[in-house]
Amino acid sequence: MRRLLLLVLLGCVACSAFAGGIIKRRNVEVPNTFGLFVASFGTEGSGDNNFYVTGEITTDGTYLYIVDQYNHRIKKHLASDLSFVASFGTFGSGDNNFSYPFGITSDGTYLYIVDQDNRRIKKHLASDLSFVASFGTFGSGNNNFYSPAGISTDGTYLYITDQNNHRIKKHLASDLSFVASFGTEGSGDNNFYVPEGITTDGTYLYITDYFNRRIKKHLASDLSFVASFGTIGSGDNNFLSPEGITTDGTYLYIADASNSRIKKHLASDLSFVASFGTFGSGDNNFSYPTGITNDGTYLYITDRNNHRIKKHWK
Question: What tens digit of pLDDT does each residue of 96-113 get?
Fold first, then answer.
C-alpha cells in the first residue's frame, strides 16, 4: 500500500513538472524550452497576411503590434495564433501616414511609433490604430530627431534612440514633449555609435549600441551610464548587428541580426546565458531578425528578410 502511494505521488510530481515543460518541481529535471519554435506567420507582399520588410514589434499580452516598414503601415495580429486583425497607414507625412516607420511600443492603451523618415514620434490608439498625436521634426535640438529608431515606455515616459544624433531621448508619454537627452558619438561609457533598440524594466534602460557591437545599461531616471557588454564577433560574448531588445525583468533577449540569432543575457550584469538560431528560412532560422518582444511566456520576433513574424518559447 505504501509502495503504491509512493508511485502515485511520484507520478503526480512528474506530471506537474512536465505538463507544458516549464513548471519547476524540486528534484525533477525540467527541459530547457528557451528558443523552441512555436509558430510563424507571413510572406512577402502587401496584403493582410503579408509583410514587406518588418521593423520592430510590441505586445499587450493579447495582441501583437508590428511595424510593416516598407508597406508604411502598422499591423495588429493575435498573439495566440499570429493571425491578422487590422492594419493602418499609407505612405506620406500626414496624420494617417508613415514614411518607413521602425520602432513601436505600447502602454496597453496607446501605441507609440517611430516614424523614421518623417523624424517624428506618433501616438495612436491600440484599439483601432487611429491617430492621436505626433511630435518632432528633423534636426539635433531637444524637439528634433535625426533618424529615430527604437522606442520603449514605462507608462509615464518614452525612451527613444536617436540614431544619427548618437543619443537617447526621454519624452513624456502624455503629450510627447521633451524631457532630457544623453549621449554623443563615440565608443566610451557616455557615447553611442548609432544606438538602435531600447527597452526598460522601469529602473534601467537597456540599449543596443549597433556599431559599437555592445549592449548598454543606463538609469532611466537621469539616463546616466551604468554598464556595457560586448564586442564585435559571433561568439557568446559578441554581437555583429545588435538590433531589437526586450526584457522580462530578469533576462534580456537581443536580436543579433547579422548573426541570425537571438541571445539571452542577464539583466543584472549583462552576461551571456544562451542563444539560438542560424541563417535560413526554416522554423529554427532567421534572416536578419530585427524586432523582439515578450509576454512573459513567449518571444515574438520579426524575421525581417523572411517577411514574417515568429513565436518561440522564452
Answer: 999 999 999 999 999 999
Phi, psi of 159 (to 5 degrees): -120, 125
What are the pLDDT digits (tens) for 301-314?
999 999 999 999 99
Alpha-carbon Rg for the chain, nearest whole angstrom, is 20
Average pLDDT over every residue of 189-202: 98
Are 249 and 200 spatial neighbours (Cβ–Cβ below 8 Å)?
A: no
- Categorize the per-residue pLDDT at 31 as very low, low, confident or very high, splitting at 50, 70 and 90: low
Q: Locate 90 and state its grid cell.
A: 499609407
Q: How far is CA 212 from the centre of its chain?
A: 19
CATH of 35-313, one of 1.25.40.10, 3.40.225.10, 3.90.180.10, 2.120.10.30: 2.120.10.30
> Which grid cell is 150?
527604437
Average pLDDT, the chain: 92
Question: Dihedral, CA atoms, 19, 25, 31, 35, nearest 10 degrees?
Answer: 80
Which pTM was predicted?
A: 0.90
The answer to whether the Cα torsion of 201, 136, 129, 79 is positive or negative is: negative
3-state secondary structure of 126: coil
Question: For residues 142 and 191, what is the distance between their CA atoms, to the nearest angstrom?
Answer: 18
d(Cα 245, Cα 293) in Å, to the nearest integer?
7
Grid cell 549597433 is found at 210
Helix (H) or strand (E) holding 159: strand 157-162
7 pLDDT more than 60: no
Residue 183: φ, ψ to 5° = 115, 150
In angstroms, the Cα distances linking 41 to 67, 88, 256 are: 14, 19, 21
